């Protein structure tokens, strides 16, 4: 399989990567193929962002604070109203100029989507615009709105993208690279946008291959068939040269979600028994070869203020599993997760559970996980992916009406804490409210955080200025090129 994948990469890149005027196109190998035709209303939006083809009104700095992008500036007009001034001189890839009308169209499509982008969970928006001014009004005060608008799922696209029920981003962005072609779940091609408002990109284009197999991704870098490889598996990192990999603590937590809605783990005592049985140390040192951090909560070392978490209340006493049978699901797309599942199976079996594993590709298991068809589910989950603020992740995953509530949790105390965290103004008070919400979630044992991952990115030695982004929003930027 590895040899076949390597040959496939060679065949793809040999023609598409030919130098243009002495410049070399970037050959990028990514882990997960598109699941929704690269619609920005899905998680595919993060691919558009990592290729610098689709852009948002706002971007985030290293501290998670909002910075200008397609919006030059903004102000909080009153408790529920924000006004954004759209950048002048920006054109979409089809040549049409960016106006407030385009922003309104894109944001309204996202706000009325079913399901909504998770960054809009619990948020009702009214969007109006004229000329180069856009006004966004929320049903309740939302101090996090600028950060929300930085989510790649709220990218602004040209009118051509919205001509059918599905959103088609080909040739419709504003970014440094123009998406020209997508070949199903195998590849994508992007060319340089010479008229990019942020300056002429240094690379002439990007040729992307989607390779779920982590060993094959790493092999492509070792053999010189790829320039940039995302998500290098821990097992492959030691096989690469030290100057080929970058390791950065990231806001991503490997968590065991327990189904509180039905089955064995509906009983709090059984959830407590699972919590007591899980030992993350062997997972970090064995499966992750020391390239991860044992979790102390849902939020990890990539969020420095998480260390200030409050004392948790007395945990629920653990019950006796007495041979109770549970099914744990996870997916193959992240190479470490099946190994984590096998290790957890042993730990839980030792505690008295009888564990069956069900492992598939993510695209084939997500719907079942969200429908509550497993007793437990192992997930590698980014905790500040959308807004740079953990409140959105916590609400999405643990609120009673959250769109990604794998644990099927419906707890009034948790919901109240999440609502407080979501509504508190940014700053120290909001951070404290977020940590209190985290404590409320952990108090239910609906989720057992095991470890915090580190992003391992592979770059060829001659790649210059690829982004090493803990939030996984950036990869190829206007300054990335082969030297």
Automatic annotation (TrEMBL):
<feature type="signal peptide">
    <location>
        <begin position="1"/>
        <end position="20"/>
    </location>
</feature>
<dbReference type="Pfam" id="PF00496">
    <property type="entry name" value="SBP_bac_5"/>
</dbReference>
<dbReference type="InterPro" id="IPR030678">
    <property type="entry name" value="Peptide/Ni-bd"/>
</dbReference>
<dbReference type="GO" id="GO:1904680">
    <property type="term" value="F:peptide transmembrane transporter activity"/>
</dbReference>
<dbReference type="GO" id="GO:0042597">
    <property type="term" value="C:periplasmic space"/>
</dbReference>
<dbReference type="InterPro" id="IPR039424">
    <property type="entry name" value="SBP_5"/>
</dbReference>
<feature type="domain" description="Solute-binding protein family 5">
    <location>
        <begin position="65"/>
        <end position="402"/>
    </location>
</feature>
<dbReference type="GO" id="GO:0015833">
    <property type="term" value="P:peptide transport"/>
</dbReference>
<dbReference type="InterPro" id="IPR000914">
    <property type="entry name" value="SBP_5_dom"/>
</dbReference>
<protein>
    <submittedName>
        <fullName>ABC transporter substrate-binding protein</fullName>
    </submittedName>
</protein>
<dbReference type="GO" id="GO:0043190">
    <property type="term" value="C:ATP-binding cassette (ABC) transporter complex"/>
</dbReference>
<keyword id="KW-0732">Signal</keyword>
């Amino acid at each position: 399989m590895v040899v076949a994948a390597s040959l496939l990469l060679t065949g793809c890149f040999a023609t598409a990567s030919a130098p243009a005027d002495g410049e070399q196109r970037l050959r990028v190998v990514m882990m997960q193929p598109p699941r929704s035709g690269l619609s920005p209303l899905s998680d595919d939006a993060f691919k558009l962002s990592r290729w610098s083809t689709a852009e948002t009104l706002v971007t985030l700095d290293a501290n998670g604070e909002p910075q200008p992008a397609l919006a030059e500036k903004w102000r909080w007009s009153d408790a529920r109203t924000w006004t954004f001034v759209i950048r002048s001189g920006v054109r979409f890839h089809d040549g049409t100029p960016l106006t407030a009308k385009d922003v309104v169209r894109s944001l309204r499509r996202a706000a009325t989507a079913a399901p909504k982008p998770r960054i809009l969970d619990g948020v009702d928006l009214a969007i109006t615009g004229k000329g180069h001014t856009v006004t966004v009004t929320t049903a309740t005060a939302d101090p996090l709105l600028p950060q929300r608008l930085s989510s790649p799922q709220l990218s602004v696209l040209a009118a051509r993208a919205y001509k059918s029920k599905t959103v088609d981003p080909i040739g419709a962005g504003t970014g440094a690279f123009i998406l020209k072609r997508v070949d199903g779940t195998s590849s994508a091609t992007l060319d340089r946008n010479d008229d990019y408002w942020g300056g002429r990109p240094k690379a002439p284009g990007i040729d992307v291959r989607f390779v779920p197999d982590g060993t094959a991704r790493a092999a492509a870098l070792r053999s010189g068939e790829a320039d940039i490889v995302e998500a290098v598996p821990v097992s492959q990192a030691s096989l690469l040269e030290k100057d080929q990999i970058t390791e950065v603590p990231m806001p991503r937590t490997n968590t065991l979600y327990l189904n509180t809605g039905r089955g064995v783990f509906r009983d709090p005592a059984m959830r407590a028994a699972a919590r007591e049985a899980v030992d993350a140390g062997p997972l970090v040192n064995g499966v992750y070869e020391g390239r991860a951090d044992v979790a102390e909560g849902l939020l990890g070392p990539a969020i420095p203020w998480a260390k200030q978490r409050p004392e948790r209340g007395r945990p629920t006493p653990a019950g006796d599993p007495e041979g109770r049978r549970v099914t744990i699901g996870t997916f193959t797309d992240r190479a470490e997760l099946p190994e984590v599942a096998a290790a957890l199976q042993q730990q839980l079996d030792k505690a008295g559970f009888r564990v069956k594993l069900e492992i598939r590709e993510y695209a084939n298991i997500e719907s079942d996980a969200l429908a509550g068809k497993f007793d437990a589910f192992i997930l590698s989950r980014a905790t500040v992916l959308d807004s740079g603020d953990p409140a959105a992740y916590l609400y999405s995953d643990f609120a009673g009406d959250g769109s990604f509530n794998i644990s099927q949790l419906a707890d009034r105390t948790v919901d109240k804490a999440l609502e407080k965290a979501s509504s508190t103004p940014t700053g120290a008070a909001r951070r404290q409210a977020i940590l209190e919400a985290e404590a409320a979630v952990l108090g239910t044992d609906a989720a057992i955080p095991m470890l915090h991952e580190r992003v391992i990115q592979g770059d060829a030695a001659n790649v210059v200025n690829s982004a090493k982004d803990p939030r996984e929003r950036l990869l190829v930027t206007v300054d990335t090129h082969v030297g």
